[in-house]
Amino acid sequence: MESFLIKGGVPLHGEVTISGAKNAALPIMAATLLTSEPCVIRHVPNLSDVRFMGRILTWLGAKVSIEAGTVRVQAKKIKGQGDYDLVRKMRGSICIMGPLLGRLKQARVSLPGGCTIGPRPINLHLKGFEALGAKITIEAGYVQAAAKRLAGSTMFLGGRAGSTVLGTANVMMAATLAEGVTVIESAACEPEVVDLAKFLNAMGAKISGAGSPTITITGVKELHGAEHEVIPDRIEAATYAIAAAATNGEVTLKGARADHLHAVIDKLHEAGVAVKRQGTNLVVRRKGRLKSSDVTTLPYSGFPTDVQAQMMALMTLAPGLSIITERIFESRFMHVSELARLGADIEIEGPSAIVKGGRPLSGAPVMASDLRASAALVVAGLAANGTTQVNRVYHIDRGYENIDGKLRQLGARIQRVEES
Ligand code: EPU
Predict the structure, then answer these.
(1) What is the pLDDT of residues 28-81, one digit of tens each?
(2) Cα separation, 91 vs 49, whole angstroms
């Protein structure tokens, strides 16, 4: 297994190009299952999760090539069942279920379990499929949805924590090939859902309202091949912005979209960090001392849960009290104990972490537990005095393209080594 060795304390300076969004690319790759014609997806990040989705599509019978940021898929003939282990290993692969159900009227995949960020139920996905007329059965670790025909209907997909991103994506994909009109109320408004709808419409679907809580899908008989360019990764952009702020540097995020980052930019301003639009780039610069700030994660357009851990790492450096409340995933605080190894003072009180910031961090060996927690440890390591060893970086490679290379380009002293 590989680790990162980070010698902290170097302000980041320079330009970094933002990759395509993982969480847009994965459902868009799954959507290619809806047609037998070839599809081309560009600006796809080079990540292990993307290669994994490629393997799943191949297993289902599609021809897949992934090369230099371009994914080509042709799913001429496919089967309706995902490989048990492949699907179980990557939570995001649940989004093959909607396209399989739409195209074949049946889908069978392994039931995804929980993960380190908390339980990951799919009850809302299944509620949506049922509303389209599918019968759901769970047996031997598999969940199956099957229907003689899918018929559009109006459904409410809000849950305990609000809307569901992949649930909305899944039901939207199945509904493109249902008979009649489907209305999803309390739909997720994330830019990744909008990007998927754009791709589906390019394939001949009739979707309106994506980006709002009401999405309307008028079913069509079939979809055709299409080309698409994936949106820039707002979570990657936010992570580099926070790393620039944490190290007191100045970084230009090439291709980052300010309109996808309102909540993050607002909180960075509050914390004393300037984020300015410059053409198609964003320039991030810390303005003197960091200020403490309270953050609550919410569905889009609120502050993203996928940036909570990195923001917490930043707040450990800001003198005063910051309260960080996680409203999407109940146990997404695995980074807290690891940040404590670097000297951070953080207490968990229910869904909130109370950060007493301002003490300097000092390097230590830490363990990555999930993708965003690992990113937070890298941010903290970049700001800490001395050397931080972040173990198990395969978590990071799932979601950040060439993070060590990009950080080195910004002047960071970070090396990838075999775990000792
Ligand atoms: N939920 C339910 N029932 C469901 C589905 C979700 O109760 O059927 C709950 C979840 O337990 C959670 C909330 O709804 O409390 C939101 O979960 P959501 O379904 O929106 O999450 P997801 O679609 O499974 C995607 C991203 C996550 C990101 C979340 C929230 C992908 C591949 N994953 O997951 O990304 O945190 O949306 O924005 O798109 C990451 O990239 O690190 C990551 C975990």
Answers:
(1) 999 999 999 999 999 999 999 999 999 999 999 999 999 999 999 999 999 988
(2) 10
User: What is the CB < 6 Å shell around ligand 1?
Assistant: 23, 26, 92, 120-125, 159-161, 164-167, 188, 305-306, 328-329, 371-372, 399
Q: Are residues 216 and 309 in the same domain?
A: no
- CA 403 to chain centroid: 15
Atom in ligand 1 nearest the alpha carbon of residue 192: 39
Same domain for 293 and 200, yes or no, is: no
| pLDDT tens by residue, 269-319 | 999 999 999 999 999 999 899 999 999 999 999 999 999 999 999 999 999
Q: Does an H or E element contain 325, and which?
A: strand 320-325
Tell whether 245 and 322 lie within a shared domain: yes
Residue nearest to atom 18 of ligand 1 (CA): 164
Contact 152, 181 (CB under 8 A): yes
Give the nearest ligand 1 atom to 371 CA. 42
pTM: 0.98
Q: Give the whole-angstrom CA distance, residue 38 versus residue 56.
A: 17
CATH of the domain at 104: 3.65.10.10
Residue 224 CA to ligand 1 center (angstroms) comes to: 29
Q: Which of 191, 221, 251 is the last residue of a domain?
A: 221
| Domain tally, the chain | 2
State residue 88's pLDDT score.
81
